[in-house]
Amino acid sequence: MNGFLIRAVVVGIGLWLASQIVPGVRILSIESLIAAALLLGIVNAFVRPILIILTFPITLLTLGLFLLIINGLMIELVSYFLKGFVVDGLWPAVLASIVVSLTSWVMSSWVGPPHGRIDVVTVRRDGRWD
After folding, report:
1. Cβ-based neighbours of 72, under 8 Å, separated by 6 or more
2. In a 3-state reduction of DSSP, which class is residue 22?
């Protein structure tokens, strides 16, 4: 649960930054920003994987660039359900998704494991941990 909340905060920062940079993306209140970040996390967890599977052939043909369109569609879907989060079309949504992705990428260096360290635990044949 903590991981979801941290990701929601990071996405919220990205959405706020996108509303400041991208013309056509507006957040009307702080409550709308919080709701948009939480709803985008839920949409990305449930709807986005289904769309990725359904559009896999076109994603392969475009060498993965179609994923930008899918990310933009997820932001448009969130704006459809939240009246305080306004996106004026697909291209502002795609640009906003790029801003959110870059923000998440930069913030992950601060929130993730220290210095990119990943702990690996192995189990020996006798069942003991190394």
Report:
1. 90, 91, 93, 94, 95, 96, 97
2. coil
The pTM of the full predicted model, rounded to 2 decimals, is 0.81
Please give the distance of CA 61 from its chain centroid, rounded to a whole number. 23
In angstroms, the CA 123 to CA 6 distance is 31
Q: Render pLDDT for 25-63 as a digit per residue (tens, 0 to 9).
A: 999 999 999 999 999 999 999 999 999 999 999 999 999
Pair 72, 40: CB distance under 8 Å: no
Of 22-31, 51-60, 83-92, 108-117, least confident by mean pLDDT is: 108-117
Residue 54 to residue 115: CA distance in whole angstroms: 36
Q: What is the distance between the alpha carbons of residues 46 and 115, in angstroms, rounded to a whole number? A: 30
Question: Is residue 130 a contact partner of residue 120, using CB atoms and an 8 Å limit?
Answer: no
Question: Would you say 106 and 24 are in contact if contact means Cβ atoms under 8 Å apart?
Answer: no
Res. 125: pLDDT tops 90: no
